[in-house]
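[audit] Reproducing an earlier prediction to check determinism. Same input, same settings, fresh worker. If the tokens differ from the archived copy the diff job will pick it up downstream; this log only records the rerun itself.
[audit] input (500 residues):
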Amino acid sequence: MNNPSAPLTPVQRVWLIDEVVRNILVHVPSIGCSRTLASCARVSTALSEPALDVLWSKMTGLLPLCRLLPHSSDAVVGHSDHSEQKLADSIDSSAVISDRDWSRFMRYARRVRKLHYHCREGPSERLRHRTFAALLRRAAHAGVSLLPRLEELSWLQSSQDIAHYRHFISPSLRRISVYVQPSLQPELQHANELLHLLNVQSPDVEELALEGVQLAASLEPLRAFQRLHSLHLGSVVVPVSVILSYCATMPNLSTLSMDLTQSPAHLGVPPQVHDSSLGALQVLRVAGPPSPIEEFINAVQSPSLRSAHLSILVPEHDRDGGARCVATLAARFATSLDTLRVEYKRPADRLAPPAPRAFSHYAQPLLSLRGLRKCTIAVEDALPVLMTDADVHAMADAWPRLVALEVTLRSSAALPSIVALSAFARGCPRLESLNVPIAQDVSDLDSDSAGARGGSEDACRQHGLRSLWLSGVGFTKRDSYRVMQYLVRTFPAVNLLPMS
């Protein structure tokens, strides 16, 4: 028998350290996680509270919490929509929550840190209006939010009561995402109510994502913007100047992503230059036609912009607009950018010109970025592209710090030979991942001449490239053997298993 008065062993004392217990519980495997945590909560007083905190930390709706209210046990017989409706009906019959029931409800509601509500119906529809109203009245009477310690709110819903997300705004909120279906009424899409609500109730929010939400033409600076460091704006329908006016009130904004596809275009008008700063911006992701993208890039004055992702929809009237955007970006941030992804897209109704376009049209503006470490160039236009050995050598010579490079072409008129890859062994000693299109013809792959083109033997022997993918080719068995010999000689550490 165990002696209660015996001193605890070191292993037993570990289980009394709350931080250690919680770190163990958050690493419970996702498969069967709920049952495991529920068992932990029952097996020991030392595990009970931490296990319950982890078990209830993330919710996808309010039904689990509502099962704690009276009459729920004999109403729920399964997990079907019919059972959920029976639960709502049983609770709705009273629509009054006693002090005791509210205390039990809040004991678990206070544990919720993340609410990801992705449903067609809103909570008042799924729980019945009287039930949800009773919860709101009880929370208002207690002076708290329904989920008073909520830190992350993600709200995606297509019914008309989208505004119910406001009942989950609390001072503890740090991350919020609101996605509005375009078919909803405009007044439900307006951002003013949400932004003012955040200003009053969640001034410490750090990440904000709005999809399908209309921004007002102007907005006074809000306290909620002072700590905001990440902002996503989807389906923006206002001019770039409006977005800049918002961002100008966010002194700590470091990550910004936005879709300018529907932003008003100024055809034939040069991009405007604004007095903006965005001085803390480090990561920029933007999609849309060239004009608003270039206008925004010209307004960014951040000395620390290190990562950019441009998804450029190149219109028929401005075929050089994509290259112009990239050239502007490269010229203004040549010393800070180290990660870049550029996608060139073509509108569905645009007719492709008959003549192919040289790959240098897309790559040349980037060659001034000497500090580039990660680069992706994706030409999704059906227009054929001419890519040569000279393009490969130009990239290898321009980017000595390159760690990862990916080039994808939807259509090609010419591709570089496989021996051109030796330029990366010579010019990019830190390269770890390479994905480029290569010509099918390997007739130039003579062991002596290919080795001579590979640069110094020492450079090849010490090169650390491990991940290599050659797109657009399918070698014969004989050619595959020759290709692998060449690649192993050029990049000794490369993993060729995916090609075998």
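[audit] rerun output stored. Observation attached for the diff report: The first strand starts at residue 58 and ends at 59.
[audit] end
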